[in-house]
Amino acid sequence: GDSKVYERILDYNKIIEALALPKGLPDTNPYRSSPSDVTTRFDQVFWFGDFNFRLSKDRADVETIMKRTLGGDMSPLLEHDQLSKQMKDASIFKGFQEPPVHFFPTYKFDIGCDNYDSTSKQRTPSYTDRVLFRSRQTNDIRVLKYNSCSSIKTSDHRPVIGVFQVKLRPGRDKSKAMFFPFTIFSCVLVSIPLCGGLFDRSLYLEGIKRRMTARELKRKEAISSQSSSTICTIS
Question: What DSSP element (H or E) covers 107?
Fold first, then answer.
């Protein structure tokens, strides 16, 4: 129901804390939602799914607004959108944005037709299904399409589709470089663009392979250290 905003924020926080993503990457993003938010360590992040936030308005009022909606302007509906409000207050999805919404609420329909919930619960039409994105660099993500699939009626939700153009930036290899100025030895850490700033798939795959190999070696070492023990005998 539309009264469970707090519970949905808790769900978001639980998911963030449970994400099995690499936590050793440097956190250089300006978004500081919480120390446990590993998503701040990535250049581009997409969140999509049924977030279950509702419109905080009576169904009759929502239906009246929908009848008055012209030209795809959904702002009168989105004024009552719980997710938009929580994002604006930075209590959830900090730094994320959503493409402009030009489609009607995607929940809840009677299966197989275009009627919103006709059961005794009479749920208020809402934007439960969303696609959000965040980019480290401005304009690295461009929205090409964001719409609902009104022709697919096999669920009580209408599917939402998002098409994006994403700019991929090359990774950087932290390497040690040796210098010998005035016969004084020095060693500095330099950041070198992989493949001279061009994306190379073979190099990318090789990097993944090496990381997996290193991770497997560490795992075997950990298992080996745990299995070794000293046996004491008492005579």
Answer: none
